[in-house]
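Q: For a teaching session next week I want to show students how multiple molecules come together into a single three-dimensional assembly. I've collected the sequence lines for a complex. Could you give me the predicted C-alpha cells for the whole thing so I can convert them for display?
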Amino acid sequence: DAKTTQPNSMESNEEEPVHLPCNHSTISGTDYIHWYRQLPSQGPEYVIHGLTSNVNNRMASLAIAEDRKSSTLILHRATLRDAAVYYCIRRDGGKSTFGDGTTLTVKP
Amino acid sequence: DAGVIQSPRHEVTEMGQEVTLRCKPISGHNSLFWYRQTMMRGLELLIYFNNNVPIDDSGMPEDRFSAKMPNASFSTLKIQPSEPRDSAVYFCASSLKAANTEAFFGQGTRLTVV
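A: Of course. Below is the structure for the complete assembly, covering every listed component.
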C-alpha cells in the first residue's frame, strides 16, 4: 500500500515549534517524500520534499530517518495561519497517493 | 504565471446529465493530475498524464468517468452520466515530470449532482 500513516490531529500553541510525524515503512528507494498542506476551501499547497537528507526551506524543515521509514515535518514557530491539514505522501515518478493527513490546530 | 486554472469553480447539475470539468496546467509542466476529494474518501488520485499521455488511470472509479489531454495546455474530466455520489471537489494539479518536483494544485471545482 502506497499510503502513509499520520496521526489524525495535533495541537500546538502559537509561536511554538510543531513536529508532525509520518510513517512510510514500505517506501521504496526511489520514492520521494513530499509534504503538502490544505487550508479550508483551498487546494493542497506544497510545503517541502526530500529523498534521504534533511531539508530546509522558508516554510519548514523535513527530517528523514536514516532507514527512510519515517519522517517529521517541523514548523519552527507555528502561527495561526499554519492551521491546516498536513499530508505526507510518497511520490514515485508521477504517482502520489495522499493519506488522511494530520489536522493541525494552532491555539493563540 | 497564473497557476493551475480550473473551471468552473462550482457546478450544480441534475443526475444523468453530462459534466465536463476543465483544467489549464502551468505552462511548461509536463505532468497533469486529476484528484477527487470527499469527506469519506479524502483525496484520491483519479488519473495522471505525462506529456499529454495517460499513464495511470487506475483511480478512475467507473466507465462513466473519462479524461483527455488534447494538448499540453488543456485537460478535461468528463462524467457521463453523472450521479449524486459523484458530488465532490475535483482538483487538477500539474508539475514537471520528475518525482523530486513540487505539484501545483488548482482551486478545485465543487461538483454537486442533485
